[in-house]
Amino acid sequence: MPGTPSDTPRRPVPDDSVRADLRGTRAVPADRSARAAGGVLPEGAVEVRRSSRRRRTVTAYRESGRTVVLIPAAFSPAEEQRWVAQMVAKLQTREERRRRSLGGDGELMARARALSAAHLDGVPQPAGVRWVDNQNRRWGSCTPADRTIRLSSRLRAMPEYVVDYVLVHELAHLVEPSHDARFWSLVARYPQAERARGFLEGVELGAASGARSTGDDDVD
Q1: Per-residue pLDDT tens for 31-54?
Q2: Beta bridge partners of 47
Q3: pTM of the full structure
């Protein structure tokens, strides 16, 4: 798992990254971090990027199904191993906390109803809201005829404001099935709509860079 060469071109770091300040901080032993991360990671699951400009922090985030860890170029192989294991564990801990807070289908329904009341005057009232594992090209979908909404389980690893945006998007479809101006005016009532759309666009661009894009990885 060697780091990429120093001074690679700077790339935008997602706002959902985790960061550690090296000043006054010590990495935990590598074997303990590996256990916290669930054992040895598959080859290619982690990409380490070194930079001579980076001296005081280590940053990690998910990108296209892998973990990217940004480290100082001055790190020794042992320091790299320790910090990578620690940052992977930190990401996984945060994602597991998120999954617990999002809960199951019942919690998702309650969340959708609260968002409808807060941003859409309580007009859209879904009959069912659930997580699905077979929705790999869309973040969410709905069927206005029976007022059901489905969210891709991929969203469980994403920030809650992104999940809420997808829910508002689908709730708006219960009022306006098409993507016309009225529909987008409803979605825009969610205060973090633009931020969430930017986050999802970044995820899709990252996925497209690693595989041929199908062009329909979207919210419907």
Answers
A1: 444 444 444 444 348 889 998 888
A2: 68
A3: 0.59
